[in-house]
Structure formats: structure tokens, C-alpha cells
């Protein structure tokens, strides 16, 4: 939505992207056969370099679960405010913080 509205990434130097949630857990070298998931991965692969965002794509040594790679790579530290957006998140915020998950 933001890109379609002409917005850009404000701080690509503080942004990372990884393929997660839209890739298969088995034979994950290839994107999903699901057309919606495949389109999401293809859009991410096109948009990340266009906007200067580092992409940890399938096959990349640092590719992994979006909630995990930040700390693993030392990109997120205690005391930082971190926003993690996935395609499953509702427009108002993360589904992980709705009270049902203790978040």
C-alpha cells in the first residue's frame, strides 16, 4: 500500500527484510507454489533492492524467521523499539499483541 501510494522507506539503513511466512518449510530453496505467497516473495525481492533494504533471501546464510534473525545478527538490542511486520498482521498492529498470546 505504501509503495503504491508513492511512499518510500524512510530509513533503509535501519531496515532489513527476510523471506518468512510465505515460503515452504520443506524444500525451501524454491518459493511457494501458492500463487499469493509466490507473489509476495517476488514483490519483496523486487522492492528490497529498489529501496535499498538488505534482503536475507532463500539460500542466504542469514535468512530465517523474522522474529529471530534480528537478535541473531545483532541488529536488535535490549532497549530498542522494534517493529516487525508480516503479511499476517492486521492493519492496526500485530496479532501477537492482542492479549490472547500473553503479549
UniProtKB/TrEMBL annotation:
Keywords: Iron, Iron-sulfur, Metal-binding. InterPro entries: Acnase/IPM_dHydase_lsu_aba_1/3, Acoase/IPM_deHydtase_lsu_aba, Aconitase_4Fe-4S_dom. One of its GO terms (molecular function) is iron-sulfur cluster binding. The keyword Ribonucleoprotein does not apply. Coiled coil: none annotated. Gene3D superfamilies: Aconitase, domain 3. Residues 5-84 form the Aconitase/3-isopropylmalate dehydratase large subunit alpha/beta/alpha domain. Pfam families: Aconitase. This is 2-methylmalate dehydratase.
